[in-house]
Design goal:
The complex is a heterodimer of chains A (330) and B (133). Chain A is α+β, with helices and mostly antiparallel strands and 330 residues long. Chain A has eleven helices and eight strands. Chain B is elongated. The N and C termini of chain B lie far apart (48 Å). In chain B, helix 1 packs antiparallel against helix 2. Classes of the chains: A alpha+beta (330), B mainly alpha (133).
């Protein structure tokens, strides 16, 4: 009933799950490679799409985009099953485990008891791996946790069938028809071009570096409004950057790791240099995170201008990476 | 970020768990490094938790004064708001908003109460009452 499974601590749930499922299927691919080759990193800020009354901010593509994008880039399939009832969904999970298959599952964060209570919010697009069952407990490899976890069947059923926005509907997934190896020389430039285009040339102002700069100017304008709302607004932006496994720095360090690994694999000095620049960008995002936290905490001396400046530095630093990649690599 | 710069601000939010961050080792190679937490991350997390606690406390006070239904308190206590609760229970927002009024809530049929209780993960008996002062 229990497959052997090599749990690895990862920076983010979906890239970690994808990397682990591929490894289980015999294709060794690191987590940064999964993020980079799927072109899963981005920046999105949509002022009129609210979550908890605050605009949606994301540093990554929508849920599912990493394994779907990777399947497209590497030429494999992702088998996906959703269910109309928890009973059917749990039966199917048991059947997969009985057949010795390790599966990815989408779940809510809020209903997973092994999450520390302060981190439990109603986010329905968390990804984890179920690799076995022991009595009434499922054995779970949740990549954002350092060690494997256990979860009682009723709790897992509740988490897999949480309702509301991004409802998982018990989604189970695993890769099929995996290639024996990866053609990095073909996949790397394609994926990088996709990310560069999205960040520099997205036709919508809500996506890419235009969105970062829009947000920077928006923060400055918050000064005229309710300071409590401004603190919640900024807090949400920083929370999406740092919380629930982003690798810190809003995925920028993980992308730098991807550029470095790609540079080593393809013996390409430009990619290594781009990786250094992306590391500097990640550091700039961390500075913004610090400034944001200070803004939230120091209620008496809010420094809107400093926050705007810190965010514009992120955009400038990140733009240099993409311009450099365009000029020296693509 | 270098390995030595990986924040190790032990935060209560993590319940002793560590998360993996990507950082450069001594030779300039990226590896994952466990982090016990970061003060900046902790502050914004605490802010979000406290905001729900503040809303729940306000709702509790109003419910005790007969100005709001217990549903409003339990909604915030479960870290939800009307926008997230409505799709969770499959109702229009305006209906959920109506159910925050005590007299409307008091007249709800058992089926709807059961739906709310299931969505919030609490027994019906708890949904219709307030915690003792």
């Amino acid at each position: 009933m229990t497959a052997t499974f090599d749990h690895r601590h990862s920076g983010h749930c979906e890239s970690g799950v994808t990397s682990a499922l591929l490894r289980q299927g015999g294709l060794e691919l690191s987590e940064p490679m999964a993020l980079g080759l799927s072109a899963g990193m981005t920046f999105v800020h949509i002022p009129f799409f609210k979550i908890g009354g605050l605009p949606l901010t994301s540093y990554r593509m929508p849920p599912g985009a990493i394994y779907k994008g990777l399947a497209k880039a590497l030429g494999f399939k992702v088998h996906r099953e959703k269910f109309s009832t928890p009973e059917a969904g749990m039966r199917a999970l048991d059947a997969h485990l009985a057949a010795g298959r390790v599966v990815g599952a989408q779940s809510s964060v809020f209903w997973l008891p092994y999450f520390p209570p302060p981190l439990r919010f109603h986010f329905n697009a968390h990804n984890l791996i179920v690799y076995g069952k022991d009595g009434g407990d499922y054995l779970i490899s949740d990549p954002v946790f350092e060690h494997p976890q256990r979860c009682a069947a009723p709790d897992l059923a509740k988490a897999r069938f949480a309702k509301g926005a991004l409802a998982p509907k018990g989604l189970l997934f695993y890769p099929e028809d995996l290639p024996a190896s990866v053609d990095y020389a073909r996949a790397v430039p394609r994926a990088i071009r996709k990310t560069v285009n999205m960040m520099l040339r997205a036709p919508l102002p809500f996506v890419g570096l235009r969105a970062v700069r829009w947000l920077a100017r928006r923060i400055e304008k918050l000064k005229a409004g309710d300071p409590r709302y401004a603190r919640l607004y900024v807090g949400q932006v920083v929370r999406m950057q740092e919380e629930i496994g982003t690798g810190g720095g809003g995925f920028r360090f993980m992308y730098a790791a991807f550029l470095q690994e790609a540079g080593a694999k393809l013996s390409n000095a430009a990619l290594l240099e781009a990786s250094d620049k992306m590391t500097a960008t990640g550091d700039a995002w961390r500075q913004f995170g610090l400034a944001g936290a200070k803004f939230v905490k120091d209620k008496d001396h809010p420094d809107y201008a400093a926050l705007t400046a810190a965010l514009l530095r992120c955009a400038d630093s990140e733009e240099q990476v993409y311009r450099f990649l365009l000029a020296s690599y693509l | 970020m270098k390995r030595g710069e990986v924040p190790q601000d032990s935060r209560p939010e993590y319940g002793g768990e560590r998360r993996a961050l990507y950082a450069l080792d001594e030779k300039g190679r990226y590896t994952t490094a466990p982090s016990a937490g970061w003060s900046a991350d902790g502050i914004v997390n605490q802010q979000a938790v406290e905001e729900y606690a503040r809303l729940a406390a306000g709702a509790l006070q109003r419910a005790r004064a007969g100005l709001a239904s217990p549903l409003e308190f339990h909604m915030y206590d479960c870290r939800m708001e009307v926008e997230s609760l409505a799709p969770t229970v499959g109702l229009w927002r305006w209906r959920v908003r109506r159910h925050l009024k005590p007299h409307v809530f008091a007249a709800l049929p058992p089926e709807l109460l059961a739906r709310y209780a299931d969505g919030l993960g609490i027994p019906v008996q708890r949904l219709t009452t307030l915690p003792p002062p």
